[in-house]
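lol ok so funny story. i was supposed to be doing the assay writeup but got distracted and ended up predicting the structure for this chain instead. priorities right. anyway since i did it might as well share w the group, maybe its usefull for someone
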Amino acid sequence: MTGEPVAGVERWGGYVPAWRLARAVLGRAWDTPSVPGERSVCAGDEDSLTMGIEAALACTGGDAGEIDAIFFATTTAPYAEKQGAATIAAVLDRSGVLTADVTGTLRAGTTALRAALGAVRAGTARKALVVAADARPAEPATTMEQLFGDGAAALIVGSRPVAEVTGEASVAEDFTGPWRRTGDPYVRSFEPKLETEYGYLRPVERAVREALAAAGITPDAVSRFAAYAPDSRAWSQAAKRAGLAGGRDPLLAQVGNLGAAHAPLALCAALDEAAPGEHIVLAGQGEGADALVLRVSSGVEAARPAASVAGLIASKRMLPSYESYLRFRRLLPSDASDPRSSTVTYWRDRAQALPLYGVRCTACGVVQFPANRSCIECFAFDRMEPAKLARRGAVFTFTLDHLAGGEYLETPVPRAVVDLDGGGRIFLEVTDADPRAVRIGMPVELTFRKIHEGAGFKNYYWKARAARVAPQGSAPA
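and the output, tada:
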């Protein structure tokens, strides 16, 4: 790629849901053989968009000021007609950006990355954010149900990379499998061996070899292989056929096949550990393949996010039963009421609800939420200025509520008043929590979640959770 402007990954961040389901539990539920390991499961208030936002916040660290383009890659977008990238931009408080959803293929993540690289090289974006997330639906009692997992990754692409892209290639292949039509509840497949050989191995091998040639290096110069694969055996076969060193995929056994997010999250895991001078091959597959070669530079250590992919994987809670998984996936019948909701109200409050703005009284300095005209402390009127709220704080007080979503739950839902760092007090539901562990003074962080689907559209807002992962170099919380 001699002569092209420099571009590559400047920062990265991943997200793996807290919940895991042992594949042995799935096997016992259906009296079928189980695959070793576990799969990640997004909670009932999570979807591909909320997971993608988690990864984006981890990647940007809350500072998205130089991002001029946002690409959202997924096969499980919350809407068939409504852009997810625009919601990500709203949460990041970036309205003047190009937004685009890349969907319809498992290699959406690597395709979006190639689009972001093109925008940076062309000078149409200073930095571009690629967010990839998936929560693919698998038919109960199938191997897919055991192999699939949920997760997300985000990458900032810029002209001052710590992992420069030195070679890339794409192969298009009109191959049917796996697939899901509009209206299909589950991913479908017809012949795994044929899909692996012709749909996966051959295009991946070709794309990887062409990307290596474009980078001007041989396979033995590559240290790490970050790639999507339908299963662990296919991953090993792909590495071998491309001439790359063996090893194992860091995700498949512990969290599963993450769809469009798999290759980008595998890249995040590789960058978490890579040393300067290493070469990484990234490969995505789906109706062909994308491959990119990245050369790691000396700035990689400083760019690493606070929470590593390994830390997110280690920080987990086990689902106790298959029924819990079915509830999360909303596969059980429910008589829950349809909450009243208004698209007008949601739009009106978007500046508060998405990027999370309150107000600060210019007379006394007290930060308050939601925004109002009269100060709750000194009663000054119309003396307010916008104040961006922090996403960390501590529980001021809480209650345990057995009524949630029109249903009575035996396990109560914690709801807490949280004092935010830097000022402001907010009332939030606590998620991913053991109700018995919630206490006054408990440190929490805010997480973007799905509240309900009242009036036929998805309502998103913030919840609180205990901090999951300690900074790199520390033990997981």
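The first helix runs from residue 23 to 30. The domain at 8-328 is CATH 3.40.47.10 (Peroxisomal Thiolase; Chain A, domain 1).
back to the writeup now i swear
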